[in-house]
Amino acid sequence: MKQLDLNQFIALIAEPQKTKLLSASDWEILLWVLDTARLEAWLFAQIKQHSTSCILPPTVASRLTSATIYAERQQQQVRFECQTIASLLAEKQVEPLFLKGAAYVISSQFYSAGRVCSDIDALVQHNDLETSERHLKMNMWLSQEVDDYDDKYYREYAHEIPPMMQSERGTVLDLHHNLFLPVSGRAPNISQFWALRTRNENGLSTLKPAAALVHSMIHLLMNEEVTYGLRDCLDMQSIIDTHNSESFWLEVSTLVVDNDFTHEYQLLLLLLDSLFGRETVKQQILAQQITADTKTRFWLWCYRKAVMPDHPQLCNPYAGVARAAVYCRGHSQKMPLATLLKHSTVKLYKAARKALVGEADKE
Questions:
Q1: Could you tell me the pLDDT band of residue 339, with boundaries at 50, 70 and 90?
Q2: Contact between residue 319 and residue 229 where contact means Cβ atoms under 8 Å apart
Q3: pLDDT surpassing 60 at residue 168
Q4: H helix or E strand, kind and range, residue 45
């Protein structure tokens, strides 16, 4: 089976105009890999923006156009759902602050061409969480079914409640009260992030770019799931390129230092530099005199491989090892060791019971 070399793939993502050199067979492989990462529409937007002379093979153009239509329709849905959620919660004097993909789509501060969202993430004040959940349930947003243990995990350990789904349209909402699990001991001072929110021209609230960058960093480097990690890296690089200024970096630095995310921040800059090599990031690495010790170099190697699309036609040696390391690292950061061992034991028991008995454990 012909494969796309990892370094070639990274080079194409960093400089999409290089796709004009691809053969038809290379394009076929690239499109399969991009589909896994949900980046087909993103690539088409980049090509149209940066390479007016690029003539695509008809089948490639058709597929990328189809992906773009899908992304645009989904973004319309996201805007509608965000307006609906905000209007519903306003009835209870609750202000939702939209995060990540939804925020990029609804705010002109972010570049969102071709961006596809898995769900809608929104933040509310902790004191408003119960009221928000109850009012959404009264308006056809239903909590996804989880067993008693998982429900307790969400409500006592996590920074969000169980996912909610709009019963008619199937849209999934993750309602947060923080940006990381309180049980971890590393949840940020959420009041600092609330202070860095902005209300957009459509009346919807999002984080300012600096806070959005730090949140995306937390999401990528402190969780075990990196399936769409490359998309997150592209989001963060876009935020940096768009808002590169002294005031922006000062806000980022303040959030990072005040919330003890210095290691993650340095790792992020080194990761973005290794992937895209942009001057906006290189300048910060030099200005802050960031160097990689042995531990940082190891995690840089892991994340550079782990965030890549998991597709057999992408040649990414030892990617399984890297993803396993990232998975373990993410879980180790979510909760203290004693809590993690207890949680892991329960989850293993539940999985074994389901596999043997054929039913979920109801507890």
A1: confident
A2: no
A3: yes
A4: helix 40-50
For range 214-219, the mean pLDDT: 98
Cα 262 to its chain centre, rounded Å, is 20
Cβ(237)–Cβ(224) below 8 Å: no
User: What are the Cα distances from residue 247, in Å, to 73, 253, 280, 334?
Assistant: 35, 10, 14, 31
Task: Tell me the pLDDT of the chain averaged across its residues.
Answer: 93
Compute the C-alpha angle 321/325/331, nearest 5°. 145
CA dist 251 and 272 (Å) reads 19
Question: What are the tens digits of pLDDT across the range 233-278?
Answer: 999 999 999 999 999 999 999 999 999 999 999 999 999 999 999 9
Continuous segment of H or E residues that includes residue 173: strand 172-176
What sign for the dihedral angle of Cα 195, 200, 204, 210?
A: negative
End-to-end CA, the chain? 47
CA angle 320, 324, 330 (to 5 degrees): 145
For range 5-21, the mean pLDDT: 94
Please give the Cα distance from 94 to 132 (Å, whole number): 7
112 alpha-carbon distance from chain centroid = 13
CA dist., res. 213 & res. 223, Å (int): 15
Beta bridge mates, 175: 122
How far, CA to CA in Å, does 33 sit from each of 181, 236, 257, 317, 334?
A: 32, 21, 37, 15, 30
pLDDT of residue 362: 46
DSSP string for 266-280: HHHHHHHHHHH--HH
Residue 240: half-sphere exposure toward Cβ, Cα within 13 Å = 25
Tell me if 122 sits within 8 A of 172, measured CB to CB: no
